[in-house]
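re: the backbone from monday

yeah here it is again, tokenized this time
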């Protein structure tokens, strides 16, 4: 029996979930796959789902889009799109004010103050008003039983907040990253006791559940908010079976050079320079890497235009067999993975850093070279994977040795070892990660009152 609720005006008795995510298809951001999978999982479990997200133009103009993802949203899901303005990324000079033209520093400071006036998030703060208005409009048309807001940006939480304050709608905070915690250095992103800190404490205190992508981030928040700890859960990203690469259970053709591959977004936190040095050394010293290729697929930086510095670095190593191939639609990922004999996992440093691609990588059954800080949370995921080759440091020699070991495994690992890799990955299917939470939310006693929830003051 699926989740049920009182009938709406059209007679539909299913629980109505409002899912809020700035980045939803056709966005190409890393978090879009979590949003897509979560929405589809709610719909498949019998919930009636409405999504609040930004207009398509937002992604087409500013961050890049993957149009193929829209076809993957289940047809019964209703998607409501809200215009989003991003002045700082506006490149059309005809839309620039005179102040921006002739006093850009003054314009940036004024824009920053405007951004955070209603919500403390540069670039995204102004979206609060249209987001809240849209959430209330959805609720007026068909009462919402549960709101699930996925951040970042954290302004997404405001839609759930306004429904809870005015109508008593319970909500889930789904942290794809963190708000106060700097996941790279473990410090604070915002001042203790400041506006963000107060706002987060208030929102956490009223949340029905709080989801985090890994145990280190959940533990950090549980220690900081012990009264909310029992409602905090890990919902790992996992891999999506419908997009997952096909496990490779046979070694590559011994007559051709090996191909190593990376798929994802390379940020400035990733040790790309260290990798290129290690790759060049490994290719000249390890026999299994003779004439080997390394392909980078995805985005160089977070925006639609590739980072010129990263692109120059990759192109400067063309003679070492390193090439950049650009973004790949999610629906074509399997074909790209089929090109590879081993995988490169490049991540930024930090105990709290994880990655969605690590689960997808594991599903391939291929050797995986972890080129990141050994204490990175991704190491917790891969520990026990039979063909995992982590570095102990990021020196040229350590990277070269790990690449050489992975190349030898790519050539000689037997079918049993590869099958064990694929079996290891099964635990990280995204539907298995989501199932316990959806089951827990299927029954929402006292979910909504006619008078609304107790209202506190915003920080």
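seq for it, each position gets an aa:
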């Amino acid at each position: 029996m699926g989740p049920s609720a009182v009938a709406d005006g059209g007679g539909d008795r299913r629980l109505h979930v409002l899912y809020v995510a700035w980045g939803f298809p056709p966005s190409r951001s890393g978090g879009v796959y979590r949003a897509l999978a979560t929405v589809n999982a709610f719909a498949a479990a019998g919930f009636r789902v409405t999504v609040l997200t930004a207009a398509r133009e937002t992604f087409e103009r500013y961050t890049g889009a993957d149009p193929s993802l829209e076809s993957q949203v289940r047809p019964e899901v209703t998607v409501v799109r809200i215009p989003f303005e991003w002045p700082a990324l506006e490149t059309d000079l005809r839309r620039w004010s005179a102040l921006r033209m002739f006093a850009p520093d003054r314009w940036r400071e004024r824009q920053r103050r405007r951004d955070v006036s209603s919500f403390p998030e540069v670039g995204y703060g102004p979206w609060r008003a249209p987001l809240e208005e849209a959430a209330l409009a959805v609720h007026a048309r068909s009462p919402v039983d549960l709101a699930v807001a996925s951040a970042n940006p954290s302004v997404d939480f405001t839609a759930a907040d306004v429904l809870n304050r005015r109508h008593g709608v319970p909500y889930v905070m789904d942290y794809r990253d963190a708000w106060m915690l700097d996941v790279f250095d473990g410090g604070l992103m915002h001042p203790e006791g400041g506006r963000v800190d107060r706002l987060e404490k208030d929102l956490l205190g009223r949340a029905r559940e709080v989801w985090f992508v890994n145990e280190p981030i959940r533990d950090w928040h549980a220690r900081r908010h012990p009264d909310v700890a029992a409602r905090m859960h890990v919902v790992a990203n996992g891999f999506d079976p419908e997009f997952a690469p096909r496990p490779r259970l046979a070694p590559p053709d011994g007559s051709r050079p090996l191909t190593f591959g990376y798929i994802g977004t390379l940020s400035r936190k990733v040790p790309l320079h260290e990798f290129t040095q290690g790759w060049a050394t490994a290719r000249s010293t390890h026999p299994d890497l003779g004439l080997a290729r390394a392909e980078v697929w995805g985005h160089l930086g977070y925006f639609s235009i590739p980072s010129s510095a990263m692109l120059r670095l990759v192109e400067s190593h063309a003679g070492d067999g390193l090439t950049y191939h650009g973004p790949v639609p999610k629906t074509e990922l399997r074909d790209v993975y089929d090109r590879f004999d081993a995988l490169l996992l490049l991540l930024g440093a930090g105990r709290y850093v994880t990655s969605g691609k690590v689960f997808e990588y594991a599903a391939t059954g291929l050797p995986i070279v972890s080129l990141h800080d050994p204490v990175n949370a991704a190491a917790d995921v891969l520990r026990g994977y039979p063909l995992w080759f982590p570095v102990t440091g990021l020196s040229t020699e350590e990277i070269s040795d790990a690449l050489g070991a992975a190349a030898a495994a790519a050539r000689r690992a037997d079918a049993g070892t590869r099958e064990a890799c694929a079996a290891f990955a099964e635990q990280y299917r995204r539907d298995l990660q989501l199932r316990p939470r959806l089951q827990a939310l299927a029954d929402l006693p006292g979910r909504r009152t006619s008078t609304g929830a107790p209202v506190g003051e915003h920080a």
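The first helix runs from residue 32 to 44. Residues 259-428 form a domain with the Rossmann fold fold (CATH 3.40.50.2000).
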